[in-house]
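Worked Example 4.2. Read the sequence first, then its structure tokens.
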Amino acid sequence: MELGDVRELATAVMAEHRLSGWRLVFDNAKTRAGSCHSAKREIALSRPLMRLYEPAQVRQTILHEVAHALAGAGHGHDRVWRGIARRIGYTGGRCLPADTPKVDGAWVGVCAAGHRTTAHRRPIRVRSCPECSKTFDLSARYEWTHRGRPAAMDPRYTAELARLRERRPAPRPPLAAVGDRVRLTVEGKYGGLTGTVEKRGRSRYQVRTGKGLLSVSFAGAQPLTEPAPSH
């Protein structure tokens, strides 16, 4: 939306809700669409984002901030603010929907699967791709470039990545299937015994050995390559 039209719309909405003595300003924020400064009696709208938004999205942004102005300082997004916001026609939540246009940052992160994200500042924490893993996964971390070129990372990022790499567990050995032969690697009197897996649970095997049926953790049994003895 053109900024002149944004100003006209915002001024009209502010007048409709009797925000006399308040002024509208534009700023260069890239990660938030608007803000309300009660002490200065000022509503600020993001210049770059307003240019990307459709009129309906601009209006919702304005209503969000007008609701803050009407609620007064100290209410944040509490029940008072929510009640006022609904009354004046705001239909969103604390933030605009995820599909609202965004300004890409100069820092671009790409995961191993090719998923992309951007940042406006040099990252200081290691992040992994939420499309690849709902929880943090070092193998799905973003690799960053700045304006299309490799760039030095923040020392805090480099230190965290080194710590994460040091903590990364060794690859899990292959699991044995029911019927496979295994050697027990546990300490104690059963260490070194061989047997046949009769059952595999979530974390343990039931192994038939010369000493009877034993319950052994996956880590305590090493699969063998020789075939099981014939009966």
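Now turn to a second chain, presented in exactly the same format:
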Amino acid sequence: RPRHPRARTMLPLLLLLLATAHGLDKLPYVPTLASPTLGGQTTTSTFVLEQPRCVFTIIPRDAVIWLVVAVPSGRWGEGGKHPGQGSLLIPVPLPSAVPSFNNSLGPGTPERSFQGFPTTAPAYMTLNTTVLNYPCPKTAGDINVLRVGSETACTGDETRPTCNGPLPGPGPYRVKFLALEGSEPVAETAWSSPIALQTARPPSSTSTAGPQRSAGMVALTAILPILLAALLAALVAMLVFAGGDACGGSSAFTKPEAVAVQRYNTHHVYDQPAARL
């Protein structure tokens, strides 16, 4: 019975794929966001992950660990413009990398380029390092986090497809760590839960009551010292005039008193001899 001519060429390929799949260690670790107490856990274009410490313990020491950032399924993006409807854009479904992620597409390929994410590249790979930079156990004082989206200089540089550039929208995103020995995947973690970024509030939704109160407070703060100075000057003037009146009244009162005492003494001196006579 004649065999199909492609059967002989397909069999080695299937065996190679089975061997590769068998050699890939699937680790139960799930990437998680850093503690909220750290500050800046998520922004409008970045998020912070815990480092995968004590996770890749059985991979070769020269294997490179990559962070994979992908869009989950069910997302929509903005396509071309509707004909005859101005700037209204047609929503288009974005390709999803999570359900059927292909580990054989390595970093730097067009399908894993940051500059094409998420429209033409459903995932990109960045923050490559070796297991030496994820020491185990953790030591006190070490920086145990990774900030995703912190580079701005390479955002449009197509010669750096593994750029750790700002994320293009609020998400959600899902991430995993993938270890490659050369171009061969040797270990991977599970996918994270969906990570949503913060959204910027439009100017129209911002209340203007706060700035108006602030301006009023500034004006009141400027006027209040002037009013206090005027009040203090008026109080000092009142005290000066009141003091002058008190001094004048005292001299007019004591002067007749001195005369009265003088007349009394004189009368007493002249009456005394008369009494003796």
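Notes for the reader: Strands lie at 25-26, 47-50, 64-70, 76-81, 89-93, 123-130, 145-148, 174-181, 184-188. The chain has two domains: 23-198, 217-277.
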